[in-house]
Design a protein that fits this description.
Structural class: mainly beta
Largest sheet: 6 strands, parallel, barrel
Shape: globular
Helix content: under 10%
Distance between the termini: 33 Å
Number of helices: 2
Radius of gyration: 15 Å
Oligomer: single chain
């Protein structure tokens, strides 16, 4: 049975049998269950479902990853990497939540200033040289 709250939050769905390439924009929310290759730009929310595979650069209001993602992610609010997430790329967000079991390889810029402008921290924004991004490699922990 369909989740009514989920439909309101993610009115657009790319189903598990769909594959899409190109540039995508939307206003509210998108739930990706299939495959996407390209670029996404939205003020809304993106949810990459467990069965989804995405190779894209994304600028969004918020991003939740449960599936496989390659590319750079930027969220004005938060990025959540759920336990089933497999993510490779650089991310920028005001907030980052990484569940135990998520796999992440890339660079991180997190905090209130991380999403200002298009680049992570800039020399002008910090009044000095750009600090190196912190490399992160997470591996699942078995209980």
């Amino acid at each position: 049975m369909a989740d009514i709250a989920g439909q309101a939050e993610f009115p657009t769905i790319i189903g598990p049998d769909a594959s899409f390439k190109g540039e995508m924009t939307f206003e509210k929310g998108l739930r990706l269950q299939g495959k996407f290759d390209g670029k996404i730009n939205t003020a809304g929310r993106l949810h990459v479902a467990r069965e989804a595979k995405m190779n894209a650069d994304v600028e969004a209001g918020a991003i939740v990853v449960e599936g496989e993602v390659r590319g750079n992610l930027s969220a004005n609010d938060r990025i959540e990497l759920k336990a089933s997430a497999r993510y490779e790329g650089d991310l920028r967000a005001s907030k980052l939540v990484v569940d135990e079991g998520a796999v992440f390889s890339g660079h991180v810029s997190v905090g209130p200033d991380a999403t200002k402008g298009r680049a992570p921290a800039t020399a002008a924004g910090l009044g000095g040289a750009k600090p190196p991004a912190a490399p992160v490699a997470a591996t699942p922990v078995k209980a």
